[in-house]
Design goal:
heterodimer, A: alpha+beta, Ubiquitin-like (UB roll), Fumarate Reductase Iron-sulfur Protein, Chain B, domain 2, 5-stranded mixed beta sheet, two-stranded antiparallel sheet, B: alpha+beta, Flavocytochrome C3, Chain A, domain 1, 17 helices, 19 strands, globular, binds flavin-adenine dinucleotide
Chain lengths: 258, 651
């Protein structure tokens, strides 16, 4: 049977728009079922704000199943809150106790400007993918899928990387605001597979160079892996760095030939 | 109980030309491709195509059209195309590859889909879907989708409800995610190359029809509230389904019917709105702040056994209940399909078990899905490897470990087979306006088989629409089209501005969410898993009254000139109200039971759905008349040439 939490104090970041300085506002809320998710608790708060004639708190969310990567809250200083391997939308109130003070902020990173309240703009991630996070395979004309066997361990490793949901927690958790975990996960997914070999080195170079235009540089803190709701491993960053070094070398040689 | 009323005979509607090519079903698509008009590669760049939606259907269509050389604009209300609801699909995607050598074939996938849909889909469309299914897998593998593999490196398959062969390809429990990322990456490449322009956080709020053809769309920028027009030679809606009309559903929170509904108001017929799918395996509602329901993939039914205690007063923990006091009702009622009986049948069986007082869990609102036998037979590791992410998700939500305590599941709204009426070319009744993916009604009849929505979305976007749209565009070559300075665009923009201003200025007392919840309750109670004439009439009495209250008593705080999620929601709930009325009318008029549409008056002695092929082997296509309560019903008769209409049996 469910229990209800009382006397929760929420300190929530409010900011009317990109140019507003923003500030924390405190809200007290009672009678929250511990079966409720964190976002459902915010829904209840928003309904109350609307009833009081106030503007609801803006936050990003959609699937509420931990897969779309839209939700993005700093909860008590931790990206996606205290539960390991869990996106904000899957965090449940049973993790909290009556009387808790909970601080809620947006992702904070130069590359993710705040749009309003708790919502940020993560379009820089799309720019990285557009630069090379794909395998060029126009529609039609693909050979039979079983023509290229992929050893199971390779497929599994690629899948481990491909699980990234693109939420940006890694960037938010990084003291430098680096996007190396995100970028390396996509590179590893494609560079591990036989289908991805043709563009392996052009891909890594284009993606890393684009990443560098928007994001800070990685100094191996490892906070990203700890914050990642999908447990993406920082080993992929090492793989990316290795491929990038090789790429610089190979691409220079190729350039010299032209 | 039977009803003496039969619907009025309706003359064939000239707008409902399905354009199915003549000839044997297996040759229709080739015949079409051999005779359609083409646009030569140099002329393609003279055409602008708008694609609304970036899910599987939208991303695949936009990327392919961009590759072909068209100028493409893609719109999504999401921040990134990768967030579309397709991302959440778990279980897998069907294809008639017959890699398992277990007797699968294009014909069998075609047959299973028609039968699964309870003989309410078009043969021509479904056959084409089965044909192109094999190309989808090739395409996705070439793009780097990391499908599950066997030790030899070849692709692995599993089986899904409603099929006796293993034809489902999967990527752990995240097939939709991996397919969407594949399509998104291909789209991103086209965006990077400048062939496709992306308009994110931009919502379609109207479609514009000038001189009888779709001339473009009107959008609202969600960040600034700015309303703007976009003109094009053709518009493709890939805007997903309307399952959120129930409020609680497995759909993502933002899924809505607005794009399809606005097109309907401009003349696109809406087909079979009452065909909605209630998925049997979702986590039961825990309390009344619940905002959505979470699906547990149907693939779990490969290894999980569904049961309830035989005794309604049972109070022991599941593992304390001896075998002979359990009712494995699906295995008992449907011995040849067992736990893999199709969705509609499994859902109703669960409802009956719970209604009989044998429900499990604190609220007695679920049935068990038990993995103990599978773990005993296959070992913990094998079962864990197959379903770990689902098990973990379940535990995060309920706090229970399903490898120790059986899962609790209950049906929930999941998918909508109804949608915009389209012909064989995926064109709606408005020339130049197309609908693809879940937004159209075309391939699943009255019930969709598991793992077939992903297949259809990608079939439409990759392998159907890019061909058929050329057949239309070829006729527009070098003809001028109206620009956004045309007065009809200005009028549509003004109407949209007025509508959003009205939501803000109503200043009533209830939030959009409050109305949505109330609307959802009515639809779930009277137009959900079981429908009756009495209930539907009741709903049709209550809905207009509640809608009137919505218009009078809505409260939207904030304004329309910056990001305002309450305002966005108001617009979506408005359209859900109107759709809800049409759904109930459609359910009332369809005096038979078929697939997901179960009318309690039409069932056989064993409680199975009773179709009425004589009167209802047709598509109901509704025409907007200004009020959904008075929409006009048209019929497209379904012709079965390759398949003999039979009673659907899974016994
Ligand atoms: C939990 C869950 C699990 C599922 N599992 C499976 C499975 O295992 N196998 C299977 O085959 N199917 C499954 N399905 C069904 C399947 O995922 C969907 O039917 C399919 O992905 C729909 O794809 P789509 O491209 O048509 O639409 P969506 O992916 O819903 O995309 C809709 C797009 O349209 C945009 N949009 C909508 N309206 C507007 C507007 N007004 N303005 C601008 N943009 C708009 C959205 O931003 C989005 O980009 C599942 C569904 C759910 C809910
Ligand atoms: S809302 Fe989709 S991951 Fe959280």
């Amino acid at each position: 049977m469910s229990h209800h939490l009382q006397n929760l104090v929420l300190k929530i970041w409010r900011q009317t728009g990109p140019n507003d300085a923003g500030h924390f506002e405190s809200y007290r809320i009672d009678d929250i079922s511990d079966e409720a998710s964190f976002l459902e608790m915010l829904d209840v708060l928003n309904e109350r704000l609307i009833a009081d004639g106030k503007e609801a708190i803006v936050f990003d969310h959609d699937c509420r199943e931990g897969i779309c990567g839209t939700c993005s809250l700093m909860i008590n200083g931790q990206a996606h809150g205290p539960q390991k391997g869990t996106a904000t939308c899957q965090l449940h109130m049973r993790t909290f106790r009556s009387g808790d003070e909970i601080v809620v902020e947006p992702w904070r990173a130069t590359a993710f400007p705040i749009i309003k309240d708790l919502m940020v703009d993560r379009a820089a991630f799309d720019r990285i993918i557009e630069a090379g996070g794909f395998i060029t395979a126009d529609t039609g004309g693909a050979p039979d899928a079983n023509l290229i066997p992929v050893p199971k361990p390779v497929a599994d490793a690629a899948m481990d990387a491909a699980e990234c949901i693109g939420c940006g927690a890694c960037v938010a958790a990084c003291p430098n605001g680096a996007a190396n975990l995100f970028t390396s996960a996509k590179i590893a997914h494609l560079n591990l597979l036989p289908q991805g070999q043709a563009e392996r080195y052009s891909r890594v170079e284009a993606m890393v160079d684009t990443m560098d235009q928007y994001f800070g540089s990685c100094t191996n803190h490892g906070e990203c892996e700890a914050a990642c709701p999908k447990g993406i491993s920082i080993d992929f960053i090492a793989m990316m760095n290795q491929d990038y070094r090789k790429a610089k070398f190979k691409n220079r040689k190729a350039l010299a030939r032209t | 109980m039977t009803d003496t009323l039969t619907p009025p005979a309706v003359a064939a509607d000239p707008k409902l030309q399905s354009k199915i090519p003549a000839g044997p079903v297996a040759e229709k698509w080739d015949a079409y491709k051999g005779s359609m008009k083409l646009v030569n590669p140099n002329n393609k760049r003279k055409f602008r195509i708008i694609v609304v939606g970036s899910g599987l259907a939208g991303a695949s269509a936009a990327a392919t059209l961009g590759e072909l050389g068209y100028q493409v604009d893609v719109f999504t209300f999401h921040d990134s195309p990768r967030r579309a609801h397709s991302i959440a699909a778990q279980g897998g995607i069907n294809a008639a590859k017959n890699y398992k050598g277990d007797g699968d074939s294009i014909y069998r996938l075609f047959y299973d889909t028609i039968k699964g849909g309870d003989f309410r889909a078009r043969e021509g469309n479904v056959y084409r879907l089965a044909q192109v299914s094999v190309d989808i897998i090739d395409q996705m593998v070439a793009q780097g989708v990391p499908f599950a593999r066997e030790y030899g490196g070849l692709l692995d398959n599993r089986s899904f409800g409603g099929a006796q062969v293993s034809r489902t390809f999967y990527a752990r429990g995240q097939t939709g995610q991996q397919l969407l990322l594949g399509a998104y990456q291909q789209l991103a490449r086209q965006i990077g190359l400048g062939n496709v322009r992306l308009f994110n956080r931009t919502e379609l709020v109207d479609t514009v029809v000038i001189d009888g053809r779709c001339a473009g769309i009107v959008t609202r920028d969600l960040m600034t509230g700015e309303v703007a027009s976009h003109a094009a030679h053709a518009v493709v809606l890939c805007t997903g389904g309307y399952g959120n009309v129930f409020f609680l559903s497995t759909n993502a929170m933002a899924c809505n019917v607005t794009a399809a509904w606005r097109a309907h108001q401009r003349g696109a017929y809406f087909a079979n709105p009452c065909y909605t799918q209630i998925h049997p395996t979702c986590i039961p509602q825990a309390d009344d702040t619940q905002s959505k329901l979470t699906l547990m993939s149907e693939s779990l039914r490969n290894d999980g056994r569904v049961w309830v205690p035989k005794n309604p007063d049972e109070s022991r923990a599941a593992d304390q209940i001896p075998e002979d006091e359990r009712d494995y009702y699906l295995e008992r009622l449907y011995p040849s399909f067992g736990n893999l009986a199709p969705r509609d049948i499994s859902s109703r069986a669960a409802k009956r078990a719970v209604d009989s007082g044998r429900g499990v869990g604190p609220l007695k609102n679920g049935v068990y899905l038990d993995f103990a036998a599978a773990i005993g037979r296959l070992g913990f590791d094998t079962v864990w490897e197959r379903y770990s992410n689902l098990f973990e998700m379940y535990e995060r939500i309920t706090g229970e470990d399903p490898t120790k305590v059986p899962m609790r599941i209950y049906p929930a709204s999941h998918y909508t087979m109804g949608g915009l009426w389209v012909d064989y070319e995926l064109m709606t009744t408005i020339p130049g306006l197309y609908a693809a993916g879940e937004a159209n009604f075309s391939d699943h009849g009255a019930n969709r088989l598991g793992a077939s929505a992903l297949m259809q979305g990608l079939a439409d976007g990759y392998f159907v629409l890019p061909y058929t749209i050329g057949n239309y565009l070829a006729g527009l070559l070098n003809k001028p089209i109206p620009g956004t300075d045309h007065p009809d665009f200005a009028a549509a923009e003004q109407a949209a501005r007025d509508r959003f201003a009205r939501y803000v200025s109503t200043k009533g007392s209830r939030s959009p969410d409050w109305f949505h919840r109330e609307l959802g309750k009515i639809i779930w109670d009277y137009c959900g898993m079981e429908r009756t004439e009495e209930g539907l009439n009741k709903a049709l009495g209550e809905l207009p009254a509640l809608y009137e209250e919505f218009q009078r008593d809505l409260r939207v705080t904030g304004d329309g000139a910056s990001l305002n999620q309450t305002l966005e929601k108001a617009g979506r709930v408005d359209d859900f109200f109107q759709l809800g009325m049409l759904m109930c009318r459609d359910a009332l008029e369809r005096r038979e039971s078929c697939g997901g549409h179960f009318r309690a008056e039409y069932q056989d002695e064993e409680g199975e759905a009773q179709r009425d092929d004589e009167h209802f082997a047709h598509v109901a296509a509704w025409e907007w008349t200004g009020d959904p309560m008075h929409a006009t019903r048209h019929q497209e008769e379904l012709e079965f040439e390759a398949i003999h209409l039979a009673k659907r049996s899974y016994k």
